[in-house]
Every structure is written in C-alpha cells, then in structure tokens.
Amino acid sequence: MSEQAELATLAQHLSSRRAAVLQAWQSAIKRDPALNTGESLPRVQLLDHIPSMLATYERALGQSPDRAAELGADGSQAPAAAHGLQRWRQGYDLREVTRELGKLNECMIAELDAYTAANPTISHAAVATARRVWAAMCSTGIEQSVGQFFELQQQEAAGHVKDLESALAEVQALEQQRGDLWRQLAHDLRGNLGVVANASAGLAHKGLRETSRDEFAAILMRGITSLHHLLDDITSLARLQAGREQRRIEPVDVALLVQQLCDGIRPLAQQRRLFLRCEGAAPFAVEGDAVKIRRIAQNLVLNAVKFTERGGVTVSWGESDASDPKRWLLTIEDTGPGLHTSGGEPLAAALDAGSSPAGGASNAGDTRAAPLAVASPTMASDTGEGIGLSIVKRLCDMLDAQVEVQSLPNQGTTFRIKFPRRYPG
C-alpha cells in the first residue's frame, strides 16, 4: 500500500474516532487543576472550534504527503483564531488558552500511537508524515489562537486608555467650570459688599437730608439681604459639591409648601410692583424631600422676581402630562427679559458639566424646551444668578427630577421641573 493510501486510511479512522478524541480532550481538561474555567463551561462551549481543526487534519491527510503539512497548517488558522476569540470572551487567561491546546495535542498523539500499535504494518514514513502534519497544525493553531488573544487584549487596553483620557478630560473640564463659578462668586461678593459699603458711607455723611437717608437705608437693606442670600447659596453649593447633602423622602403637600414660600416672597414682588401668583390643586400630596423642593422653587422664584421689571411671576403645580403619569410638574413662569446665550458664559459653565454650555434651544427667538444647562441670562452676571441655577440643577439631580427651560427674549422664561411622585424603598 502506498504512503498516500495509508494516510487516507488513517484519515478515515480518525474521522470515526473524532468524538472519542474530543471526549478524551474534554476529560483531560476537567482533570487538569490549572483549567478550572473549562470545567464550569457547558460542553457545547468547550467543544466549539476544535472539531473543525480535527476535520481539517483529516482532510490534509488525504492529500499527497508533500502537500499535507502545508494544507493542514493553512486550514487550521481560522478555527484556531476563532477558538482564541471565544476563550477571550469567556474570560480565559493566556495560560489557559495555550494549555487547552496542549491537552488537545496530547490526546491526538495518544490516538496516533494507539493506531500505530493496532496497525503494525503501517510504514514509518506514513506515521512520520501524520505526526509532522499534526505538529504543523498544532503549532499554527497555538500561534493563531495566542495572536488573536493578544490582539483583543491590545484592543481592550487601548479602550481603557481612551476611557481614562476621556475621564481625565471631563475632570479637567469640571475643575475649569468649578473655578469659573467660584471666581464668579467672588465677583458677586465684592459687588454686594461694595453696595453695602457705599450705602454705609452715605449714611455716615454729615448733613444728609432725611429723604436721602431713607434712600441709603433702603439700599443698605437690599444689599444686606442680597448678601445674605448669596452667602446661603455659597454654603449650599459647598455642601452639594462635598457630597454632604442627603435625600430625605417623606410625604409632602406641594400646595402648602409653595403657598408658604410665595407668601414669604410676595412682599419683595410687591415692592417691585410685580404680581406673584400661586396656582394648583390643594392639597397636592406626593413623596419627596420638602426642604430641597422648597430650595429649588425658592431659587427660581427669587431669580424671576429679581430680573422681571414688568408683569410678574406665576408658580403652578399639578399632574404631569398623560404620557408621564409617574411624575408631577412644578412650573415657574415670568414675564422678564428671557434667556439667551450672549453675556452668560459664567452661568453656562456653572451648570451641568455634561451639557453644551451655549447654544441649541437657548438662542434668541427659539421657543423649544431645552435642558436647564444650555440656558444663560441676558442680565448682567453680577448678582449671583449663576450659583442659584447651579444649585437648582444639582438638587434636581439628587431628586431624580427633569428640568426644562423655555424662553423668548423680552417676553419671559418658563422653568418646568418634573419630579417623581414616588421613590423606591
């Protein structure tokens, strides 16, 4: 019998023994304490691409002896690479991948030895060719599997580097925004202290007329009040940034809470000849953090009263739209100058770091609802409105609330905050 015929007979024998070889390989893996991962895998995953390698070996043995090794090595590349890919996805390390293929080599050598012992008439040349073809396949298989493993490892490492670079850029941007906000706060403090100092100097002037004294006294009181609010805001922002604020969920009557808030702010609105209306169902019971809901509403209403020159402010509450029955809606609407992007960069930077600082729906003339973070005021930024809205955004994040703003120049601004009606736990 020719060597090629002997190899063809061997190929047929190995084809009939393929399941037995795979079973022997699986058993060897289970017995190996260094391959514990494989023992926990279902058989369908363990015996994934190896049958293709064995079938390729059988086909290569059917070729001429000169071509068998070359064809076997070439044909094993794809299934071996696929084997390395799947093992990477299953969490194998490199040692396990190579050791697994080494166990396959041991099983195939044992099968060839058994065939040679059972068929003593087979020529040494045929046995040598069979072993040489298998050695070439096994070597190529390990090379391809390990190569695929390293390629995926490099891709993952590159992904980690990209994630770290992105995170670092976000941290740097956040620090930049935080620095801009605190510089703005220092500017606001100096402005308020300047007002207080000038009013105090005016009151101390000798020979001051009574009417002028009353005017200076009123300016002094407004300056002190504004300074007090600003210091409260600075304290609140510092606590929020330090993570010292806690969410305390309890039953809340929104109607009572907002009406009491408006009653306290209404004298300021009347002093500025503005109306301040409260509209909504009473009572209106929800779950929430009453202190934080009040602080959100207070910041927005005070800002609205402060910058509205004609008309007034309307605060309303009630059910959200029918498509979102799990939330309730708080709305603060004013007839002030509106919001747009010009002159408001400090405020935009103080808001949500993940949003665009200027543009989109906040452009003049655009009436689309937009996230709070894109809006910035037209008024001069020397009165602390940036920190107020920054606090609103952070408090809303704590309460899982959605904030939208809609504005028209010289017609007014509307803030809509959608709060959950219930909280888990």
Structure, explained:
The structure is a single chain. The chain has 425 residues and is of the alpha+beta class. The chain has 2 domains: 163 residues, Orthogonal Bundle (Globin-like); 173 residues, Heat Shock Protein 90 (2-Layer Sandwich). Helix content is 62%, strand content 11%. It has 14 helices and 8 strands. Helix 1 packs across helix 9 and helix 2 packs across helix 8. It is rod-shaped, with a radius of gyration of 38 Å. About 13% of the residues have low confidence.
Fold topology:
Blueprint: H1 3-16, H2 18-31, H3 36-39, H4 43-46, H5 50-61, H6 65-75, H7 77-89, H8 94-118, H9 124-203, H10 210-241, E1 250-253, H11 254-271, E2 275-279, E3 285-288, H12 290-307, E4 312-319, E5 327-334, H13 345-350, E6 370-371, H14 385-398, E7 402-408, E8 412-420
Parallel strand pairs: 2-4
Antiparallel strand pairs: 1-3, 4-5, 5-8, 6-7, 7-8
Helix pairs in contact: 1-5, 1-9, 2-8, 5-6, 5-9, 6-9, 7-9, 8-9, 9-10, 10-14, 11-12, 12-14
